[in-house]
Amino acid sequence: MSKTPARIVHEGKIVEMDKESISVEIVNKSACAACHAKGVCGASDEQVRTIVLPQTLATATAGYQVGDSVKLVLSASLGMKAVILAYGLPLLVLLVAILVFSALKLEQLYVGLFSLAAVAVYYIIFAIFRDKLDKEFVFHIEQ
Questions:
Q1: Order of strands across the sheet with 69-75?
Q2: Rounded to an integer, what is the distance from CA 26 to the centroid of its chain?
Q3: Is 103 helix (H, G, I), strand (E, B) or coil?
Q4: Per-residue confidence at 87, pLDDT binned at 50, 70, 90?
C-alpha cells in the first residue's frame, strides 16, 4: 500500500509565458475570506501573488497557454522547511541572543537592540542565499 506524499497545492492561472519562464497568478486567501460577511468586516484579506516558474521540457511540451487554469504543487516537507527557515530559526536566534546578551549583564535596552540586530543579520544572510533557496523550493505545474 503506497501513500502519495503530502503536497501543498494552489490553484492559479497562467498570466505570462516566454521561452525561459511561466508566470502563474495565485490568490492567497485568509481563513475568513470565504465568510459571507467579509464585505463589511474589513478583517478579510486576499493577496494576489505571481509565481515565476522556470520553463522545463515537460511544461514546454504540455501545451499550456496564457489564461489556462493550473495547479501549483510543492511537497509538504519543503513547505515545513520553509516555515522553519523563515520563522523557527529567527525565533531561535532571537532567544539565544537575548540569553547571551542578558548573561553579559547588558542593560535591557541594549539586550533588545542587539537581539533584534542578530535577527536582522540572520535575514541578511537569508537574503544572500536566496538564489540557492529559489532552486530548492520549486513549484511544479499540474493541469
A1: 46-54, 21-29, 7-17, 69-75, 140-142
A2: 13
A3: helix
A4: very high
Q: Average of pLDDT values for 38-59?
A: 68
What range defines the domain where residue 11 resides? 7-142
Whether residue 2 is contained in a domain is answered as: no
Location of C-alpha cell 515545513:
80
Per-chain mean pLDDT for the chain: 81
Whether 1 is covered by a domain: the verdict is no
Q: Which of 118, 135, 10, 29 is nearest to 71 (CA)?
A: 10
**Contact criterion met (CB below 8 Å) for 64 and 21:** no
Residue 123 maps to a domain:
yes
Q: Which of 61, 58, 48 is nearest to 12 (CA)?
A: 48
